[in-house]
Amino acid sequence: MIAVKFPFVRIDDRLVHGQVVEGWLPYLRADLVIVASDAATRDETQATLMRLALPESVELLVLGTAEAARHPALSPGGSRRALILVPGPREALALLEAGARFGELNVGGLHYTAGRVQLGKAIFLSGEDKEALRRITELGVKLSGRALPADPALDVAGLLNGEGGGR
Amino acid sequence: MVEAAESIVGRQDQGVRVVAISSRQSVPEIRERLSRALRELLGGEGVILFTDMPGGTPGNLAFPLVKDMPGVEIISGVNLYMLVSAFSHRREYDLAGLVAKVLEDGQRSIRDIRQMFLAKVR
Description:
With 167 residues, chain A is α/β, with parallel strands linked by helices.
């Protein structure tokens, strides 16, 4: 499959859901999930549902992107087996701009909304998403499109360039 | 349901057959399709046949076929989490162990979400 480095950062607009709980968590053997989303910090119902979906043994933090970026798990040499979930490319970029460090970004689920262009099976991108992903690659982060651990990786950066448009 | 489970835990490249049953099919036809699916799956470490409900047509037609077959178990009340559990653990357990795991996980997945939520927030 893939060599995992922690923190493992994933874009998924559904945040904590079946693919994450049944697919990624056992695969990563993560003991900490950080949801980095300003919107999610304002939604206690969603936070509780995410807590209920995760095993008791897994710690869950729902933090704004600025606060998440300061968490030790997002620093170089962070020792936790941490899975970081962000709802979109914008939040992933915000983490990096606020000082978080990670070498790879898993582009998982960005589901369809009107005006978004399809790149992979569950990857639909708006112009703003593409711009944010380009900036992320410019910061030296590798993008890999993968819904589940066993999926073949989709070269998102290559597709972004190959497609050429969006600006 | 198989597709949804695969989207959660990954594609099952082999060892899964779906037999959809409708009222437009005759009983011998359904029986034949069940037998064919079973024949295609036998020879491995075992088969679990999931059906909708106890006393439903799929189970009623399948049970006589598998009653005396070693290595075939039949479980009713299939839900998405039972398939997720079976797909996740099929390589880890033997047939009896997997049946026990799937029954436990399936039953654990039937919950009153509002009550669960309220218990969490008190």
